[in-house]
Amino acid sequence: MSYPPEIASQFDIPDLEKDKLVGEVIRYILFKTEQNSGCPIRREELTQLITAKGYKQRNFPSFVIDEAKSKLSSIFGYEMRELQRSRPSAAANTGRASQSQQSVGDAKSYIIISKLPSDVYGKFVEDKSSVHLSGLTFVVIGIIHLAGGKITEENLWHHLKRLGLHENEENHPKFSNTKQALEALVQQRYLQKEKVNGPEGNIVHYELAERALDAPIYDKIKEYVAQMVQKDATPLEYD
Q1: In whole angstroms, what is the distance from residue 190 CA to residue 49 CA?
Q2: Which domain of life is it from (predicted)?
């Protein structure tokens, strides 16, 4: 690929080398997304992939990542979306001691999202064997949304038990280990989990993380909840 003269002169790196690096970043993103069940990829990982090969130019990693983003869209049909890592509300708003499972330093990360229409994606791309995981994600996000964006671990499992999911179950027919299935949502950044030291001891809280708060997902949740509330509020009609 031939890059604009201003880009070529800025980095003084042959176009062939740039293309090779862009290709390596794309392969890394696709492989990691598949390997880690869609967990966000930290920008730091992509930057290190480039600088480890001896490229130390200040803005070169950003250039390569932007080119990878462009090609993922034009060739593979994926939107490479940047997520800004959010801090747990207790850590952000109070000075009390807390233990967060997320590092504040890992500020930026990426996920890839298919740009196909939902009906086309569902028919030709979606892995039908993992539909139950998408359902669990939707349900958990909905529960926490209705709780005001944050809920204790005890209350969350109280609601999940009503759906047949028990905290210590290790042989669920769909999810196997239910606790690990919930923990996967933390790793995928739909949720963030925080242990807060209080008068009654350590209390674990779950709240919505940046992926669940991303506009497309959050808007779908709000629309679904509004439909359910409207349905429940509809008066019964009698013949």
Answers
A1: 26
A2: Eukaryota
Residue 232 belongs to what H/E stretch?
helix 215-233
Query: Please, what is the average pLDDT of the chain?
Result: 82
| HSE (side-chain half, CA atoms, 13 Å) at 22 | 20
Under a CB-based contact definition with an 8 Å cutoff, are residues 80 and 112 in contact? yes
Distances in Å between the Cα of 85 and the Cα atoms of 39, 114, 169, 210 are: 13, 21, 31, 6
Q: Are strands 201-208 and 191-198 parallel, antiparallel or unpaired?
A: antiparallel
CA pair distance 211, 72, nearest whole angstrom:
20
Q: Is 153 in contact with 206 (CB distance < 8 Å)?
A: yes
Q: How confident is the model at residue 239 (pLDDT cuts 50, 70, 90)?
A: very low
Token pair of 208, please?
A: 């919505």
pTM of structure? 0.75
